[in-house]
Amino acid sequence: MKKNKSGLVMLGIVVVLYAVLFFFNADKTLTALKESLGVLKMIIPILVLVLILTALLNTFIDEKSISRHLGDESGLKGWLLALIGGILSHGPGYVWYPMLQNLRERGAKDGLIGAFIYARAVKIPWIPLMIAYFGWTFIVVYTVYVVLGAWVQGVLLGKYMNCNRKKGS
Amino acid sequence: MLQKLKSALKNAAKTLYVISPMLLAVIGLVGLFKTFVTPQMLHTLFNGSALHDMLMGVGFGGVSVGQPFLSYIIGGELLDEGASFYGVTAFILAFVTLGVVQLPMEFSIFGFRFALVRNLLSLVFAFLLSVTITATLRLFA
Questions:
Q1: CB contact, 8 Å: A34 with chain B?
Q2: Which residues does chain A have within 8 Å of residue B101's beta carbon, measured at their own beta carbons?
Q3: pLDDT per residue over B41-69, tens digit each?
Q4: What is the DSSP secondary structure assignment for residue A5, as one 8-state letter?
Q5: Which residues in chain A touch residue B129, judged by CB atoms under 8 angstroms apart?
Q6: How many domains does the structure of chain B reveal?
Q7: Are A102 and A139 spatial neighbours (Cβ–Cβ below 8 Å)?
Q8: Cβ contact (<8 Å) for A145 and B32?
Q9: Mind telling me how many Å the CA of A109 is from chain B's nearest CA?
Q10: What distance in Å separates the CA atoms of residue A85 and residue A98, rounded to the nearest whole number?
């Protein structure tokens, strides 16, 4: 991963935004800050988990097995791994991005990364809440279509990225 | 092996350090959205016609941030208020799979082209899946 200045620029913009909003509506801005701190507290454990997972993946899984399980030769098993991984992954998506990029740099297919990210729209822990609001039929139909959609989207994304790589080289 | 694990952990920590400004920025924006964009504001924007609700659903789902369960609660309330399944499904899908706020972060980690194409595909799929899911539900109803 490149060292990026864009992060610092973004952070600067957000800080300025807070300062300006504080000027107009101090109470609400402080509430927003509190909300942000709450989110930070919530994601820190997940973030630590993901980083440890990344480190373990880097130590015990070499490029060869990545390319076998997630690379060009991975086939159906790769898709299943990506879809199940996406469904089971916890917390906000951006927490997983560094790990996914790491796998990608070490040979995982682009399409599988895309499928993982899309499959995150299925959230097993929240299914009871969804049933309460939308009913059983909706959950079943929704889950089936999201998984299918994640797969199709992964295939399309992979095809597009491959095409461009060939053109570029 | 231990040596390898140590250096891998060090690398992971370095990754965290590199992404931390962007992470903090995104989290700061999340707080602002949660405070300044209320569920009531979202409520007033859905009127029950399929295309209108889908556009609204994708639009607001895409810019909203927060825990996914928020989208289920808001979606459920919207449905009670007479919004269509088209709009509600689009909202739930866009809420999780599209992230306008975290887009800069996605760009900087995955590279511009991958992130752009992934988000465009997710945009199209939010519409596609909303239509197919609602149509399938109609078959069962």
A1: yes
A2: none
A3: 767 778 768 899 999 999 989 987 766 77
A4: S
A5: 145-146, 149
A6: 1
A7: no
A8: no
A9: 12
A10: 15
Say how many residues make up chain A. Answer: 169
Q: Are A168 and A125 in contact (CB under 8 A)?
A: no
A to B CB pairs, distance under 8 Å? 197
B125: domain range? 2-140
> What residue of A is the nearest CA neighbor of B19?
A7
Which amino acid type is present at position B13? Answer: A
Contacts of B129 (CB under 8 A, 6+ apart): A145, A146, A149, B89, B93
Helices (H), B37-102: 39-43, 50-63, 68-80, 85-97
Which residues, including other chains, have CB under 8 Å from residue A120's CB and lie 6 or more apart?
A86, A87, A89, A93, B96, B97
Tokens of B136: 């399938």
Per-residue pLDDT, A1: 45
Q: How confident is the model at residue A169 (pLDDT cuts 50, 70, 90)?
A: very low
Inspect the interface and report whether the beta carbons of A59 and B1 lie closer than 8 Å: yes
User: Would you state the pLDDT for residue A161?
Assistant: 93
By the CB < 8 Å criterion, does B118 face chain A? Answer: yes
**ipTM of the assembly?**
0.80
Q: Give Cα B2 to chain centroid, integer Å.
A: 39
**Residue A42: closest CA among chain B residues belongs to which residue?**
B67
Of A137, A145, A153, nearest to B140 by CB-CB distance is A137
